[in-house]
Design a protein that fits this description.
Shape of chain B: globular
Helix content of chain A: 55-70%
Number of helices of chain A: 2
Oligomer: heterodimer
Largest sheet of chain A: none
Number of strands of chain B: 28
Distance between the termini of chain B: 36 Å
Number of strands of chain A: 0
Strand content of chain B: 15-25%
Number of domains of chain B: 6
Radius of gyration of chain A: 21 Å
Structural class of chain B: alpha+beta
Largest sheet of chain B: 7 strands, mixed
Chain lengths: 51, 808
């Protein structure tokens, strides 16, 4: 059962890692605008040719 | 001649502009084999084409907006520089503009490529949801004013808002971010606590592991309770200080007792505690809080008169015009006012003459003619030549702004003062009932079996937590707000939604609310040019009638006309006028009377707004006046009258009322010539009689009444335009649907009451275990989430079901 202690430590470590990533992404403003990036991806790469 | 033929004639001559897709009115400009309605549109096209940005036109359908020639040089004034530039370093500055005209993907193509149009612009980022554009620019190459002017010339006129509003917004955004992080942490704690409670659920007996899991759970639980749940501590404390009990009090008691018991059990090695249930509860509660915070970033519910006024004024200094920010107006200043500009403060006209439109400010639809030497009041819109005025009163002392000195505006909480929401009303009984039950059961066990009393009390307090109300409330009402927003009815918050459900009296404003705004121009669709003698005859005919349409016509007729004598004049109510003038028969007819098939429009009933002209028995077309009632208003008023007390208030004279009074048979239900203050007092007196009042209005003249009412609904035809501070903004064309929306809001409240009953059943099951002191953590861990999730489902499914019906 000793292996459980290691696994618990690992699982907590991973979960905390994800939690920190989430907090960082919120603070970094990544969740502020969920609409524009989805639209941007469709327009940016196109070559601009005159009509 | 039939209406369809008239339409045909109209479409034959109509060309739509390649850029803005509006009908080219006068002369079409041909360029590059494309038609443009004006030079502005052509220039935008040219600019985009030359800078290989023509992709703009293929990204989405009809992307263009007519450009504006507004000059924003005034932004270079230090007053605005400080306010707008959020960051500046090494010659590069960052500025945020709100561009209400953003509407499609093409806007994104264009606005994020602004650096192609001006090399001074380093980079631009668009936030589509908020309609905000952030621009990084080089200060030595381009300034704020030039950027704003460039945006306006492309059709995206920036809306520069007053500082108070933007500060409020920033605070709100900060709060949202905080809540989001708390929610994430609560979810993390709940998920892991459940994982660590697994041995307990499964009955695995391993002492040391169980101990470790217990400690880990306490750590997670502490984070959930004291960080994620911190708002509950603050709110409950704030209310207790005021001597009030809210629904949050029993929730907090449940959380704290559950947490405290768990800490005790773990450290005394007597059990596993309820940490999984407690942190799960906090998680669900926070989801609810997050869900109810639907905010409409592109709308503002808090505008005061300042946002209606111009940002800058042009002062006359030593014969030269100098721009100043609005708040630098002083008594005695000479200002220049141009056509369609607004008088910023009470003043006297020095030179020129003006037609002032006070309809937005006073509700009076008639224009007022002002000559040199007469005084003019703040808020009037000037029509006519360039005029010079002298300021007589400061901004704050103006006739109009006095309204904002009223109590209702100073007290931010006045709407909630005399109103308790359902959750808090129930919350009091619930708390008292719960505590008494705990005391009774506790004392019973203390006498019969002292070992069980603490267990029983703890279980009662934990399991009976009124999470039904705390969860179904935000979900049901939050969903309600979302569904109504799909019908262009935007409600500020869930409290306003709930207040709407409790309304028993409705007060309607007339001008601009039931009628369409005066800013629209009449449209003439005539089959031939009329001679001046014909105009004179029609003018004389129309003069005979007081019907609003005839008055409109009189105002519309080109120049001053001669009045000619009429023979055999007849006016048939609701049908039209006829008379013989110089041997020819002239008729002004309502469309119904001509027997034309009338095409219906979204905005208004055309038959009410079209005036057909017949000369010598032959139809020569019609003139369409926008100043009529909105579509379906009559039906709406009847529907409302069947259920509510309905009142009509107007700043107009009763003589202008027209057919609307037919819909209000009881003279005590309408009042004319109301000042903005009268309207506010009218609402107040209704409230003093114990009524819950919804006010529906549009202009600044209704601002006081909107503020005073339980729910103030502002009508807006274009949500880019100014709306006075209100609880909800309803798009004008949807006004006729109002009875449906009110029923929907009532349904929302009924749904909450239903789910409350259901949760009482869950509670009864839980309590039957709890009073015996037998509530195992496992039962708690099953019952509590089931309760929460079923509340969530009922709220969402119920509201979606009704919401779908709302749309069809």
């Amino acid at each position: 059962m000793e292996i459980m202690y290691v696994m618990i430590a690992l699982s907590l470590l991973m979960a905390v890692g994800f939690l920190l990533a989430f907090v960082w992404s919120v603070k970094n403003g990544q969740q502020d605008d969920l609409i524009t990036p989805a639209m941007r991806i469709l327009t940016e790469e196109k070559t601009n040719k005159p009509l | 001649m039939h209406a369809s033929e008239v339409e045909e004639i109209a479409t034959l001559t109509e060309t739509t502009c390649f850029h803005c897709h509006e009908i080219c009115q006068d002369d079409t400009i041909e360029y590059d084999e494309k038609a443009f309605c004006c030079h502005g549109c052509k220039q935008v096209y040219q600019l985009l084409n030359d800078n290989s940005l023509a992709e703009f036109y293929v990204c989405d359908v009809n992307p263009g907006k007519a450009p504006s020639a507004q000059n924003f040089e005034f932004l270079n004034n230090p007053h605005f520089q400080d306010k707008l530039i959020s960051f500046s370093s090494q010659g590069v500055s960052k500025v945020n503009f709100h561009l209400p005209a953003i509407h499609c993907r093409s806007c994104l193509c264009l606005l994020e490529n602004l650096q192609k149009l001006n090399s001074g612009i380093v980079k631009t980022t668009l936030n589509f949801g908020k309609k905000d554009l952030t621009v990084w620019f080089q200060e030595d190459q381009i300034n704020l004013g030039q950027i704003a002017t460039l945006l306006a010339s492309l059709g995206y006129e920036p809306l520069i808002s007053s500082d108070e509003v933007s500060k409020e917004k920033r605070k709100q955004v900060n709060h949202q971010t905080q809540l989001f992080i708390k929610l994430g942490i609560a979810g993390f704690c709940a998920g892991n606590a459940m994982l660590f409670s697994f041995p307990e659920y499964l009955g695995i007996e391993d002492g040391s592991l169980k101990q470790l899991f217990g400690y880990l759970n306490i750590a997670l639980g502490s984070l959930a309770v004291f960080y994620s749940g911190s708002d509950y501590f603050k709110n409950v404390w704030a209310h207790l200080k005021l001597g009030k009990m809210t629904i949050e009090l029993p929730i907090l008691i449940g959380i704290l007792v559950g947490y405290g018991r768990s800490v005790y059990e773990v450290f005394s090695h007597t059990g596993a505690g309820y940490i999984d249930s407690v942190s799960g509860l906090i998680f669900f509660l926070l989801i609810g809080k997050w869900f109810q915070q639907k905010s409409f970033d592109f709308l503002s519910f808090e505008r005061n008169y300042k946002s209606y006024f111009p940002l800058v004024i042009s002062k006359l200094e030593g014969g030269k015009e100098v721009n100043y920010p609005l708040n630098e107006i002083k008594i005695g200043d000479r200002l220049i006012i141009r056509n369609q500009e607004i008088i910023p403060a009470d003043a006297v006209l020095i030179s020129g003459s003006s037609q002032l439109d006070y309809s937005f400010v006073t509700g009076e639809s008639e224009m007022v003619r002002i000559n040199a030497g007469n005084s003019m009041y703040a808020g009037g819109r000037h029509t006519g030549e360039r005029i010079e005025i002298e300021i007589k009163k400061e901004l704050k002392q103006s006739h109009l702004t006095q309204l904002w000195e009223q109590q209702a505006f100073k007290d931010p909480l006045h709407k909630t003062e005399n109103w308790e929401n359902f959750a808090n009303q129930v919350g009091v009984y619930f708390t008292v009932g719960l505590l008494s039950l705990a005391i009774i059961v506790g004392s019973y066990w203390l006498y019969t079996d002292p070992s069980r009393w603490s267990n029983a009390v703890v279980s009662i307090l934990v399991i009976a937590c009124p999470c039904a109300l705390a969860i179904s409330y935000p979900f049901a009402l939050g969903q309600g707000i979302r569904w109504l927003a799909k019908s262009n009815f935007f409600i500020k918050d869930i409290q306003a939604f709930e207040r709407m459900a409790q309304v028993d009296t409705i007060v309607l404003d007339k001008t601009g609310t039931l009628t369409l705004p005066s800013t629209l121009e009449p449209i003439a669709k005539l089959t031939r040019e009329l001679s001046s003698s014909e105009w004179s005859a029609l003018y004389s005919l129309a003069l005979q009638s007081t019907h609003p349409m005839s008055r409109q016509f009189v105002r519309y007729v080109p120049e001053k006309q001669l009045i000619v004598p009429l023979e055999k004049f007849t006016e048939k109510t609701g049908k039209g006028l006829e008379a013989i003038i110089e041997g020819v028969e002239y008729r002004l007819l309502n469309a119904k009377y001509t027997g034309h098939r009338v095409p219906k429009d979204n905005n208004y009933i055309r038959s009410e707004s079209q005036l057909y002209i017949q000369i010598g028995g032959i139809s020569v077309g019609f003139i369409e006046f926008p100043w009529v009632y909105r579509a379906g208003i009559e039906v709406m008023i009847h529907q409302l009258q069947a259920k509510y007390r309905v009142y009509l208030l107007s700043g107009d004279k009763q003589a202008h009322a027209g057919s609307i009074l037919d819909w209000f048979p009881d003279p005590s239900t309408y009042q004319f010539e109301c000042s903005p203050m009268d309207k506010m007092r009218f609402i107040q007196s209704l409230q003093e009689q114990g009524h819950r009042v919804a006010m529906i209005g549009d202009g600044l003249n209704d601002a006081g009444a909107l503020r005073q009412a339980h729910v103030g609904i502002a009508i807006s035809d274009d949500h880019l335009h100014f709306t006075p501070a209100s609880d909800a903004i309803l798009k004008g064309e949807q006004l006729a649907q109002l009875p449906k929306y009110l029923v929907f809001s009532e349904f929302g409240l009924k749904l909450i009451k239903l789910s409350f009953l259901l949760s009482l059943v869950y509670n009864a099951i839980g309590l039957s275990y709890a009073v015996q002191g037998n509530l195992s953590p496992l039962i708690a861990a099953v019952l509590m989430p089931i309760n929460s999730i079923s509340m969530l489902l009922i709220a969402n499914l119920g509201m979606s079901w009704k919401g779908h019906a709302l749309k069809s």
